[in-house]
Design brief:
globular; binds guanosine-5'-triphosphate; binds magnesium ion
Length: 220
């Protein structure tokens, strides 16, 4: 999959502002400062499409980007200690509403720093995704900060700790672009599954329609 001309669409601060669109949606979530915006820039082949910052907790909005075949949502980072309890609660509710409402949500990337492993917040996030039956892949970020061998060891340990197979855990670095192709492949297969499901749903709708027509003809 080749990404050309990804553009920023809009930001949402509240659930009422969430983008309603026809295109399948891919979301990126994770702890503050884990590298969500950097990963989006890597996918878009752009330096500053999504604002990155060394100061954690910068993205307090859901930011939407149009990637052509799909929309990409950069979700607010969680787990930043310096944020007030009220603000944290607000984010938690925003995230929950996002997963509740997004029918077009096709796949979520849960980003975890490869050096630090999954936090309680990450586990809660994956539980939420399981609850709403949203398919997700764990993406271990900042792989360039470890040697290749270390990165491999950490990836196995983290996958084990959250009960996932290594297949559901990708290792990436936005700095070296390691893992970019695997991410794009994952998006491509998520979109293919999505369009297959839509085909089935539309056949089912058509069948129901035909059944209803037959029934109503029988009633006449
Ligand atoms: N070495 C290295 N640094 C990275 C990588 N990805 C991100 N960073 C750095 O980590 C910091 C945070 O990156 P962001 O992409 O802004 O992280 P974020 O998850 O969007 O952060 P919030 O929006 O604040 O939640 C920045 O200083 C980035 O340069 C990576 O793959 N390797
Ligand atoms: Mg960000």
């Amino acid at each position: 999959m080749i990404i050309k001309n990804a553009t920023f669409v809009t930001s949402a601060a509240r659930a009422e502002q969430f983008l309603a669109c026809e295109k399948p949606m891919i979301a990126v979530c994770g702890k503050s400062n884990v590298g969500k915006s950097s990963l989006i820039n890597m996918l878009a082949n752009r330096k500053n499409l999504a604002k990155t910052s060394a100061t954690p907790g910068r993205t307090r909005l859901v930011n939407y980007f149009d990637f052509g075949q799909f929309m990409l949502a950069d979700l607010p980072g969680y787990g930043y200690a310096a944020v007030s309890k009220a603000e944290k609660d607000k984010w938690a509710v925003t995230l929950q509403k996002f997963f509740e409402r997004s029918q077009e949500l096709t796949h979520v990337f849960v980003l975890i720093d490869i050096r630090h492993g999954a936090t309680e917040d990450d586990v809660a996030m994956m539980e939420l995704l399981n609850y709403y039956i949203v398919p997700f892949t764990v993406v271990l970020t900042k792989a360039d900060k470890l040697s290749r061998m270390r990165a491999k060891e950490h990836a196995k340990k983290i996958a084990d700790s959250i009960g996932l197979t290594r297949l559901n855990v990708l290792v990436v670095s936005s700095q070296t672009r390691e893992g970019k192709e695997e991410l794009l492949d994952r998006i491509e297969s998520a979109l293919a599954v999505r369009s297959e499901q839509e085909d089935i749903a539309s056949v089912q709708t058509q069948e129901t329609r035909e059944e209803n027509i037959q029934k109503s003809e029988g009633d006449l």
